[in-house]
Amino acid sequence: MSKKLFKVLSILLIFLVAILSFAGCSSKNSTTSKSSGEKVVNIFTWANYVPDDVIKQFEKQTGIKVNYSNFSTNEEMLAKLQASKGSQYDVIICADYMVQIMGKQKDLLIQPINKGNIPNYKNVDSTYLDQYYDKGNKYSIPYTLGSEMIVYNPDKVKKDIKGVKDLWDPSLKGSEVLLDDPRSVIGMALTKLGYSINETDPKKLDQAKAELKNLKQNVKVFDADTPHNSLISGDTSIGVMWGSQASAALKGNPKLKIVYPEEGMQFEEDNFVMPVKAPHKENAEKFIDFLLDGKVNNDITNNIEYISTNTAAKKYMSKEYLNNKAVYVPQEEFNKAKHLEDVGDATKQYDLIWSEFKQQ
Predict the structure, then answer these.
(1) From the centroid of its chain, how far is CA 184?
(2) Banded pLDDT at 36 (limits 50, 70, 90)
(3) Which residues does the record give as spermidine binding sites (predicted)?
(4) Where are the alpha helices (DSSP H) in 45-132?
(5) Which CATH number applies to 40-145+268-328?
(6) Residues within the annotated binding site for spermidine?
(7) Distance between first and last Cα of the chain
(8) In percent, how much of the chain has pLDDT > 70?
(9) CB-side exposure of 306: number of CA atoms within 13 Å?
(10) What CATH number does the domain located at 147-266+338-359 have?
(11) Model pLDDT for residues 264-309, shown as the tens digit of each residue
């Protein structure tokens, strides 16, 4: 082969490689574009926290498929989000103090939400905006408000139950169901001692640990998702649970009684947040906007029985629902409400206390 011919073929080969490389890049970009336009939204929250009927309505109206994953505790959610570095989910619904924790990490886990793309944001009651955990609501939008209360069977519990401290009474041995939630249970011990549920003093936390050791003999069941079931079945006779779960308990056994703890109730404001690498951001905004529609939000709260934070939903609510003691509580209870906050480095001690308590 002549040198001249070899040179020509070499140039042609280089040109061909360049064309194929360009085509490959174009194909890759095309795939990326197609992926970002995928009609999917990935949701991560508690089981049954967005009703199936509402999800089906959203899918029918938008053509966007909802992939629903659930967690049992806020801590489990945080661990999974950290493991995926904010890339697996599009919308997460979680508790207020978790928004505070994630918001402190400088956009590493969650991203600011563009309210301009969510017209129904106007329906959110201003009472629940601009809270301690996210001033200005940069990262979060309120979804519902939950309240933690005591429910018991008066046929089996003869003690006059007034508050959290009564859960330590020896007569309740082997009869209690508690939430499988470290902050809830350790918070009860701190409340009994007269301390903040957000205590960080190691000595006071050690005292709470000792109190839990005394409580353990009374606990029969830990259940974060369905604590009411053991009350209905009669497996337990008294328990601590969220209002929606208390409502379900009373529907299963109308004889059960609800107590608002005299020390003050724990309230939790659950919020929409968007992971920093949400793969379907536009679909996430559409999903949040859909759930903030007044009629849709009423359908949600009627189903899950948490307090609505949506002003537009109120006009659709029945008097029966608004008078449900398990869901809507008196204003004076809000005035002495307890809210969980980030406890920083003390989290390690909380985790250790919880681990030892569960293994007793």
Answers:
(1) 14
(2) low
(3) 97
(4) 52-62, 74-84, 96-103
(5) 3.40.190.10
(6) 97
(7) 85
(8) 90
(9) 25
(10) 3.40.190.10
(11) 999 999 999 999 999 999 999 999 999 999 999 999 999 999 999 9
